[in-house]
Model the fold of this input.
Amino acid sequence: MINTNQIPLSTPLRIIIGAGDQCWQGWIPTQKDELNLLSPEDWEMSFHFRLVDAFLCEHVWEHLTELEGRTAANLCFKYLKPGGYLRCAVPDANFPNPEYQKKVQIGGPGQKDHPAADHKIVYDYRLFVNVFASAGFEVDLLEYCDDLGRFHYNQWSMSDGPIYRSLLLDRRNRDGNIGSVSLIVDARKPIK
Done:
């Protein structure tokens, strides 16, 4: 459980879901044992009646089934302020690099300690946008590969939530070569 009662109401509430070792200034990192994406009880106990300004989530959604991803999107939507957003990144099913695809495939390559060993889905941009749009979000694609494997980048601000596995931050992307990408979206809750 996250204790949001100690955070002044005047301070924006910005939460990293499944932070791992990520720690960004102005963001509260959480792990699954503190905020389980699929547990309404965790959400209720963590936020009560306080709504969140922003969520940041890097390479977590692929560890959920599609149905679980939709459930998690609905919970994020419920606990976001109108105008708030979720910046979310996952491996990209359309990145045309066989080694990358081997590393991110469902179930991983069979190595026990491989990070993809519990991947349950690899999203393309259409399905990933739909997961959030069906929850009520307005979705902007920030980085993605299209059906032909062409990489697309739309200007986005690191101050709204950095994504390490992105064009600008990932050290594998240097000197005009793209060595690794993520499918990155901003899912914004409409103001109404």
